[in-house]
Design a protein that fits this description.
six-stranded antiparallel β-sheet, 482 residues, 13 helices, single chain, extended, alpha+beta
Length: 482
C-alpha cells in the first residue's frame, strides 16, 4: 500500500506544480493587463516592475490554488482511468477512498497552508501592492511626443506636433495650448518648428520655438471679463522654461489599512469598533433629534410658559389650539418656520442615513474578508472531491479535456462567488450566506460525483441516458395506445 500511496503522490505532484504555475501566469497576465495603462510611459526601473509583479503574484496565490487542485486532480485520475490503472486497482479490491487517501491528506494540508497564508502573508502582500501601485499611479510620466497626436504629459500644457525628425529631435508645425494660468484656451501658440532641451539632474526643461505666433485671450481672466482684451505676439524665436517637477520615484508611507490588509484578529477588532461606533452614534443622533426638534425654543422658566404650566399640572393640551389663537400673519410666519425646520431636520436625517449606510457597508466588507480567509482553503478541498472522481469518470488525461472542464467549473464558481459577495456587500443577502454561496453550490456536486465514482455509476455514458429516454417515451406511447 505504501508503494501505491507514493505512486499517487508522484502522479499528483507533477501536474499540480505545472498547473499551479500555469494558473499563476494566466492570472498575473490578466492583472497586468488591467493596470498596463498605469505602468506604460512612467520611466520606471525594472526592479520596481518586478517588485510589483512579485506582490501581485502573492495576492493571486489563494485564487490559483483551487484551480490548480481541480485541474491536477482531473489530470491525475484521468490518466489513471485512461491507462486502465484505476480499473486494475479497483479489481484488486482497493476502493477509491483508499486510492484517494494520500491525496486527501495532501489537499487538507494544502488547505491549512492556504489559510495560514491568507491570514498572515496575504494582508501584507495586499498592503505592499496597493501602496506601490498608488505610488506608480501618482508618478509623473516621461515626456514623449507622437506625431499628429495631442500630448498632455506636461502639466498645464497640451501639445501637438505634426512631424518629428528622429535624428535631430526637431519638431515641426507645433500647436501648444497653455492652461497653466487660466482654465480654457487662454494662450495658444503656433510655431513653424521647435525643440525641447533637458538638463541633467534638473526638473526644468527648455522649450525653444521658431517662427510663430502666440495668441492670448485676456478676457478669460476674472479681472478682464468686461473689456475682453486680446493679444497677438509674433516671434522669430521664443524660449520658455517649464518645470516638470521631481521625476524621481517616491514611495508613500504605509499608514492606512483596508479590509484586504488585515488578518482575522484585526478584522474582528475593526468590526467590533465599527459596530460600537455605529450604535453609539445612532443613540446620540436620536437623542439630539428629539431634544432639538421636538419642541423649538422651549423656555426653562415654568412661570412664563403656559404650555409647561398645563403639562406640569397633569392636563392634556392640544398644541393646535395655541396655533389657532394667533393672528393670520403670525400663523403664516409660524408655518413657514415649521416647514424650514422640518426641511433642516430632513436634510440632517438624510445625511445621517448616508453615514449609517457607509458604516454598514464597511462592516459587511470586513465580515466578507473574514470569511474569505476560510472559503478559499475550503474551495481546495471541494475542488479535489470534484476533480478526482470526475477524472476517473471521463478517463481523459493530458491538458485537453481537463483544462476545458476545469476552466468551465472555475468560471461558474467565480461567478457564483462574485454574485454572493456583491449581494452581501449591498445588504441584499446575509453576509455568511453570500460568502459561502459558491461553496454551498459546489459541495453537493463534489459529494454526488464522489459517490457516483465510488459506485461506478455511468454518469457520463450516453447510452444510459438514451435508455432512460427510450423508457420514458415508451411509457407515454403505451399509455396513449391504451
Amino acid at each position: 500500500m505504501k508503494k501505491l500511496h507514493l505512486y499517487m503522490l508522484r502522479s499528483f505532484t507533477g501536474p499540480f506544480f505545472a498547473t499551479f504555475f500555469i494558473s499563476m501566469f494566466v492570472l498575473l497576465m490578466q492583472m497586468l493587463w488591467r493596470y498596463i495603462d498605469d505602468l506604460v510611459g512612467k520611466g520606471l526601473d525594472f526592479s520596481i516592475i518586478l517588485e510589483l509583479l512579485f506582490y501581485f503574484s502573492l495576492t493571486l496565490i489563494p485564487m490559483a490554488l483551487p484551480l490548480a487542485v481541480l485541474l491536477s486532480s482531473i489530470m491525475t485520475f484521468g490518466n489513471l482511468g485512461e491507462n486502465y490503472e484505476l480499473i486494475a486497482l479497483k479489481s484488486a479490491g482497493i476502493s477509491l477512498y483508499r486510492i484517494m487517501l494520500p491525496l486527501i491528506i495532501v489537499v487538507v494540508a494544502l488547505a491549512i497552508g492556504t489559510f495560514l497564508f491568507s491570514n498572515n502573508v496575504l494582508p501584507v502582500a495586499n498592503m505592499k501592492s496597493v501602496n506601490l501601485l498608488y505610488d506608480i499611479k501618482k508618478h509623473k510620466p516621461e515626456v514623449s511626443f507622437k506625431e499628429g497626436v495631442f500630448t498632455n504629459d506636461l502639466e498645464g500644457y497640451s501639445i501637438k506636433v505634426d512631424r518629428i525628425n528622429k535624428e535631430t529631435g526637431m519638431m515641426y508645425n507645433m500647436l501648444i495650448y497653455n492652461h497653466k494660468e487660466v482654465s480654457g484656451n487662454y494662450e495658444v501658440t503656433k510655431a513653424d518648428s521647435g525643440m525641447m532641451l533637458s538638463f541633467p539632474n534638473s526638473s526644468i526643461i527648455e522649450l525653444v520655438l521658431y517662427s510663430g505666433n502666440t495668441y492670448t485671450d485676456e478676457g478669460l481672466k476674472p479681472t478682464n471679463r468686461k473689456t475682453f482684451p486680446f493679444r497677438r505676439l509674433e516671434f522669430n524665436k521664443q524660449t520658455a522654461l517649464i518645470d516638470i517637477g521631481n521625476n524621481d520615484f517616491e514611495r508613500s508611507d504605509e499608514d492606512f489599512l483596508t479590509s484586504i490588509m488585515m488578518n482575522i484578529n484585526q478584522l474582528d477588532n475593526t468590526v467590533d469598533s465599527l459596530k460600537k461606533e455605529l450604535s453609539t452614534k445612532r443613540v446620540e443622533k436620536v437623542r439630539n433629534l428629539l431634544r432639538n426638534n421636538y419642541r423649538k425654543n422651549k423656555e426653562i422658566n415654568v412661570k412664563n410658559d403656559s404650555v409647561l404650566k398645563i403639562e406640569t399640572a397633569g392636563m392634556v393640551l392640544n398644541p393646535d389650539s395655541l396655533f389657532f389663537t394667533l393672528e393670520p400673519d403670525e400663523r403664516q410666519r409660524v408655518a413657514e418656520l415649521a416647514v424650514q425646520n422640518a426641511r433642516e431636520v430632513k436634510a440632517n436625517v438624510e445625511a445621517d442615513y448616508a453615514f449609517y449606510k457607509r458604516q454598514e457597508t464597511q462592516i459587511r466588507k470586513n465580515q466578507l474578508e473574514w470569511h474569505k480567509k476560510f472559503t478559499f482553503p475550503f474551495a481546495c478541498i471541494i475542488f479535489f472531491f470534484i476533480g478526482a472522481p470526475l477524472g476517473g469518470i471521463i478517463r481523459k488525461g493530458g491538458l485537453g479535456a481537463p483544462i476545458v472542464i476545469s476552466v468551465f467549473l472555475f468560471i461558474i464558481y467565480y461567478v457564483v462567488s462574485m454574485i454572493g459577495e456583491r449581494s452581501a456587500k449591498e445588504g441584499v443577502m446575509n453576509v455568511i450566506l453570500g460568502a459561502w454561496l459558491s461553496s454551498i453550490v459546489f459541495l453537493p456536486l463534489g459529494i454526488m460525483l464522489t459517490y457516483k465514482s465510488v459506485t461506478d455509476s455511468e454518469i457520463l455514458n450516453a447510452e444510459s441516458y438514451m435508455k432512460f429516454v427510450n423508457k420514458f417515451t415508451h411509457f407515454f406511447k403505451k399509455k396513449r395506445n391504451d
